[in-house]
# Entry
Amino acid sequence: MHTRGGSSSRGQSGLGFGSRVSSLLLAMFATMATIYVAGRLWQDAETRLHLVEELDERIGQGKSAVSVDDTLKIIACREQQKRLSAVEMELAAARQAGFVSNKLVDKGDGHSKKRILVVIGIITTFGRKKNRDAIRKAWMPTGAALKKMEDEKGIVLRFVIGRSANRGDSLDREIDNENRQTNDFIVLDGQVEATEEQPKKSKLFFIHAVETWDAEFYAKVNDDVYVNIDALGATLSTHLDKPRTYIGCMKSGEVFSEPTHKWYEPDWWKFGDAKSYFRHASGEIYAISRALAQFISINRSLLRTYAHDDVSTGSWFIGLDVQHIDESKFCCSSWATGLFLSCVCVCVCVFVCVCVQTTTLLGRSHGRARKRP
# Structure
């Protein structure tokens, strides 16, 4: 009995020792696991801290945090945009040069017609109906004759006007009524009719015209100018082989910095100490080729305007590969020097409204060309 009791006591002691060893091993493993996990967390925290510091340094030095791949993609995108702009200009030049239907445009019914030679926008404003009526009597066809000129000579004529600041008032209604009778207006709904808005008005005309008519040239004319349509058509036809042309009576006048002056230029300081405008076509009448009109349309939001529409138009072509053509026949004083039959235009007096016969109109306008910077 005594022997059995001693043996039982030793067995219990062995079991207790084994249990303690197992607990100790588990505790060791748990401690090691805790240390390992803590070490990894600490390493991750150090890595994040290092990345934050590196990012702060790069931002502080003005460097981009964009990856190399993203940077290459951005550069490639910019290059594609440049190529697209170049292709658009080349396409316009190719069309102008004749690679795409230079003379003939397919109507879709098996017939073809000549491309329009020129779209002429006659810049007018409210209260100038007598001027418009005088133009209609002197050199601008009306009704069926206007359409006949478009079909036979390829010359489109339209008066160009904006809207009243008080939309829908009597001024707008008068123009709408006149247009219903004559159907010879381009009404720029997005343009407020005001003297200081004249440069923007001319820009919107070119945009509207090039998006409406596929023509070789687009011309701007004031409503106090007598235009010799035949001479204009003949002159423009001699420049069909030139893809980017800017045609007019080229000049470079004084820049006036006095606010009280009639031709005051708010941005006078941009033209340098000499205070002279760059060479540009006189605003009475000038023409641009289709490629340049398309350039204006494409870049409309980037092209700024100055106080005068002719200066503004000339500024858009500085830096471009454009051929400036100083055409003496576009100078409104030419008829006063005897270039009666070949001249394109002549500036008329303010009483043009009472001139019905062409000879009377010419007699009144003889030698009365306006002068402006």
